[in-house]
Design goal:
Elements (H helix, E strand, L loop, with lengths): L2 H8 L5 H12 L1 H4 L4 H7 L4 H10 L5 H12 L16 H21 L3 H13 L3 E4 L5 H13 L4 E2 L4 H9 L6 E5 L6 H13 L2 E6 L5 H5 L2 E4 L12 H22 L4 H13 L15
Parallel strand pairs: 1-2, 1-3, 3-4, 4-5
Helix pairs in contact: 2-5, 7-13, 8-13, 9-13, 10-11
Length: 291
C-alpha cells in the first residue's frame, strides 16, 4: 500500500507525537524524502524513536524504506499541485484533481495488488458453503457490487445491512463458510464485532480495506487492499471506493476464468434476466452488453 495513502488513512488515530511526524510528511513528502531521520524528528519536534515507530506502523522495515517510498510517490504529484481541494480552486482544477486522484488510486491499487492472494480469495469463495458480506456506510457501495457479482456466479451469498442481522448471519456460520468484510478505514467497530463472532464459528474471514495495519486486516485470514487517500474532507471516500471497485472487477473476471465451465450457466441465466429487464433501444432492440 502507498505510504502517503496509508498515512492519511491512519493519521487521526495516531498518538500526538507520531501524528506530528505524519503532518510534516504529508505537508511536503518530497522534502521529507531528502531529510535524515534526525532532521525529520527535529522538524516534527519529536524524537528519532517516534519516527521509527511510525515507520513500523506503516509496515516499513526502516527509515530508509520511508525515504525511498516518499521519493517515488512524490513524483506522481504534479509540481505546484496540492493534495486536496483549496478555496482558490476553480471548477476546472477541481475536476482535474478528482480525475488525477481517481486514476492514481486505480494505478496504485493495480501496481500493489497481491495476485497470489487474489487467486486464493477466488478459490476460497468458490469452495465456500455460503458467503456473508459485511459492510456499513460508504463501504456498502463496493460490498453491493461484490454481492451482485457473486450472485451472477451462482454463489450462495448474503449482504445483511442491519447490524443485528449481520451478527445473526455470522453467528450461524460454520467451518467452510466465509465472512467477507468491507471497510475503508478497516476500523469499523460494528464490523469488527461481527468478525469476532464469525471467528468463533470457524468461518474463514476475508477483508477488503484501504488500511493494511487496521484491526479488520489483522483479524483476516485473507486480506486485499485498495490504495487511496482523501482528496479533501468534502469528497469523503470516493478514492477508497474506486480502488475497491477496481479490485472487485479484477476478482470477478478472475473467478470467471477459474470457474469455467461451472459459472457458464448462472452467468447465462442472469444475463437473460438483465436483457429482459431493459427496454428495447434504438439498435435493433438489443441491449448493449454491460448496460
Amino acid at each position: 500500500m502507498a505510504v502517503i495513502a496509508g498515512l492519511q488513512l491512519i493519521l487521526e488515530q495516531l498518538p500526538p507525537s507520531e501524528r506530528a511526524v505524519g503532518d510534516v510528511i504529508l505537508h511536503d513528502p518530497a522534502a521529507c524524502a531528502r531529510m535524515t531521520i534526525a532532521e525529520l524528528a527535529s522538524k516534527a519536534q519529536t524524537s528519532k524513536t517516534t519516527v521509527i515507530r511510525l515507520c513500523q506502523r506503516l509496515n516499513l522495515k526502516s527509515y530508509r524504506d520511508l525515504r525511498l517510498n516518499l521519493a517515488r510517490e512524490a513524483l506522481t504529484i504534479p509540481p505546484g499541485q496540492s493534495y486536496g481541494i483549496t478555496e482558490t480552486d476553480d471548477p476546472q482544477s477541481i475536476i482535474r484533481k478528482v480525475q488525477d486522484k481517481e486514476i492514481n488510486a486505480i494505478q496504485t491499487t493495480l501496481a500493489g495488488m497481491d495476485i497470489p492472494t487474489l487467486v486464493q480469495v477466488a478459490e476460497t469463495l468458490f469452495q465456500s458453503r455460503q458467503v456473508t458480506l459485511l459492510a456499513s456506510g460508504g463501504a456498502l457501495v463496493p460490498a453491493l457490487d461484490a454481492y451482485h457479482k457473486l450472485l451472477r456466479l451462482g454463489l450462495n451469498c448474503h449482504l445483511p445491512q442491519d447490524q443485528r442481522e449481520q451478527k445473526f448471519r455470522v453467528a450461524l456460520c460454520q467451518p467452510g463458510d466465509v465472512a467477507w468484510a468491507f471497510s475503508f478505514s478497516g476500523a469499523s467497530k460494528s464490523i469488527v464485532e461481527a468478525l469476532k463472532i464469525a471467528r468463533a464459528t470457524g468461518a474463514t474471514i476475508i477483508s477488503l480495506t484501504n488500511n493494511s495495519s487496521s484491526p479488520i486486516a489483522r483479524m483476516s485470514d485473507l486480506s486485499l487492499y485498495g490504495a487511496a487517500s482523501y482528496l479533501s474532507e468534502f469528497t469523503g471516500t470516493m478514492e477508497f471506493r474506486v480502488s475497491q471497485l477496481c479490485i472487485i472487477d479484477s476478482l470477478f473476471l478472475l473467478m470467471i476464468k477459474l470457474g469455467l465451465p461451472r459459472v457458464h450457466q448462472p452467468l447465462k441465466i442472469t444475463e437473460e434476466i438483465i436483457d429482459n429487464d431493459c427496454f428495447p433501444l434504438n439498435n435493433g432492440g438489443k441491449r448493449k452488453k454491460g448496460k
